[in-house]
Amino acid sequence: MIVALVWVLLDRTNLVKQGISPPSFIWFWFPVVYLRQRDQMQDKPWRLMQVWLLCTALSFAGIYLLNRQSGTENLAQSACTLVTKILHEEGVDERCIRVMDMQEEVRGRFWQAQALLNTGAKKPVTIERRGRDIYVVLPDAGE
Questions:
Q1: Is residue 135 within a helix (H) or strand (E), and if so which, with residue range?
Q2: Rounded Cα gap, residues 75 and 84, in angstroms
Q3: Are strands 110-117 and 122-130 parallel, antiparallel or unpaired?
Q4: What's the pLDDT tens digit per position in 3-52?
Q5: Residue 106 φ/ψ, nearest 5 degrees
């Protein structure tokens, strides 16, 4: 948003230098309206406004996807620590290096995944998130 506001200020300054009357200073705080007014005053199609809206939508989509991915990676790291703890409690001298291939089974609650161990073996795991708590089940941990 700050970049958009700086761009509007620079554009406004540039228009004044060219002798073109820029949109009202009030629209400076609303870049999308500013762009619409700018194009309308110059009898141009509203391309700048459309590009700005598209870029804004893509930015929000990117932020959403990155936040979602980051949450899944944090869950995988926490689950890996729990897998190592479970293995040590079972008397197995192995540790989890990474939880991978996470498949979400129930939105935001259950995942099926594979735990890669330091021996190169992969173990299936089920991960459950209950609020802030994480539960991990190793189906064959007792075998």
A1: strand 133-137
A2: 14
A3: antiparallel
A4: 777 877 888 888 889 888 888 777 777 878 888 888 888 888 888 788 88
A5: -125, 125
